[in-house]
Amino acid sequence: MRVLIVDDSKAMRMIVARELRQAGFADLVITEAASGPEAIDAVGEFSPELILSDWNMPGMSGLELLQALSAKGFPGVFGFITTEASAEMRSAAEGAGSRFFITKPFTTDVLRDVLAGVVAVGS
Fold it and tell me: pLDDT, tens digit, for every residue of 35-92?
C-alpha cells in the first residue's frame, strides 16, 4: 500500500510511519510531505492509496489540501491525524470527503482500528 504522510513536523511524520508498521499494515511504501503544496506534488508523482494528513499546517491547511485533491479527483482514502478535533472540524472534514479523523496523541490500537475500517490490514 502506498501511503503519503503529510505533517509539518518531521518527528510526527516519523511517529505515524512507525505506528502504521506496528499496527500490522504490511508492504507499505511511505512517502512524506511537509506541507499541502508539497503533498499535491507528491500525489502526482507517487499516487498514494492512503493519505494521512495533519490539519494545521502553514500555508495550506489539511482541509484545504483535501479540497484541492478532491477537486482533482483523488481516488484514494484521505483522513486526518491531528491535535484538534472539534465537532465543526470533524463535520467540515467529513463534508469534504475525509474518511476518518484520529486525534493526537493516538495509540497503535486506535490507528489499527480506525484504518481497518477503511483499508485492508496486511495489504
Answer: 999 999 999 999 999 999 999 999 899 999 999 999 999 999 999 999 987 899 999 9
What pLDDT, in 10s, does the model give residues 81-100? 999 878 999 999 999 999 99
Residue 3 near residue 123 (C-beta atoms within 8 A): no
Say if 74 falls within a structural domain. yes
Work out how many domains the chain is built from and give that number.
Answer: 1
| C-alpha angle 100-101-102 in degrees, rounded to nearest 5 | 120
Give one DSSP letter per residue of 8-56, joined into a string.
S-HHHHHHHHHHHHHTT--S-EEEEESSHHHHHHHHHHH--SEEEE-S-
Tell me, yes or no, whether 122 lies in a domain: no
All cell numbers assigned to 67: 479540497
84 in a structural domain: yes
| Residue 122 CB contacts under 8 Å (≥ 6 apart), including other chains | 24, 25, 26
In sequence order, the β-bridge partners of residue 5 are: 32, 52
